[in-house]
Design goal:
Layout (H helix, E strand, L loop, with lengths): L1 E4 L2 H14 L3 H21 L5 E5 L4 E5 L2 H14 L3 H13 L4 H5 L7
Antiparallel strand pairs: 1-3, 2-3
Helix pairs in contact: 1-2, 2-3, 2-4
């Protein structure tokens, strides 16, 4: 099980997601975590399901990576010298803004 720290970027993306859909903060955190983890798992292993738990109060996402993702993270860690949790946190941050409505309406050359 990997414990991925929740960053401000993730919190902001989840809040925006929830506000756009009139969801509770808890539901929005779960939705954004699932989206990000599914994207990562799918790219690493073609998986369509993820095992995870969000503890927003503790500021952590717990995720059980697939064997393929675990191997991928270990290889990236060995190559870069960066620990696997940090690598996973960076990927979660990267995908946290995926599927936000505001990004669909913003011209590509306009900053957030």
């Amino acid at each position: 099980m990997i414990r991925i720290p929740i960053t401000d970027r993730f919190r902001e993306a989840a809040a925006e997601w929830g506000n756009d859909r009139l969801m509770s903060d808890t539901d929005a955190f779960e939705a954004k975590a699932e989206q990000a983890l599914l994207e990562i798992e799918h790219l690493a292993s073609d998986a369509n399901d993820v095992v995870f738990e969000v503890d927003a109060e503790a500021g952590v996402i717990r995720h059980e990576p697939s064997e393929d993702l675990a191997r991928f993270l270990a290889a990236q860690s060995a190559e870069s010298g960066v620990d696997e949790v940090t690598i996973m946190r960076l990927y979660v941050d990267l995908f946290s803004r995926a599927f936000l409505d505001s990004d669909l309406h913003r011209p590509p050359d306009q900053p957030e």
